[in-house]
Specification:
Helix content: over 70%
Structural class: mainly alpha
Order of helices and strands: HHHH
Number of domains: 2
Number of helices: 4
Low-confidence stretches: 59-68
Number of strands: 0
Strand content: under 5%
Mean pLDDT: 76
Distance between the termini: 67 Å
Length: 111
Amino acid sequence: MKIGTFVMGGLAGAAIVMMIQRNQMMSAVAASMGQNMKSRMNDMKDEMIGKALNMKFGGSAKRSSSSSNHSEHAFDEDNEDLSKVSLLASKDPKVTEQINAILEQNGQDRI
């Protein structure tokens, strides 16, 4: 970057700041824009943290979606997962008993 471009950018930025500070209307607009940007950044941060936690603990972003297509797809995946679990559980009666106990505690049907 050329030093002249850097200096011109700094001077232009300082001039804009001075103009905003002197005009209360522009100052209020700038403060409002800053508050909106801060709020949006916090929302995006929270959303990314939630997605990262879902990935880390075996969840998926698809399952946390609220649209009907995604929820139906997640329901199909859950049924496939449960059928795999019941297949594996059928090979060991102790596992079947433990799974049924967990399902009963959660108020769900036994496998």
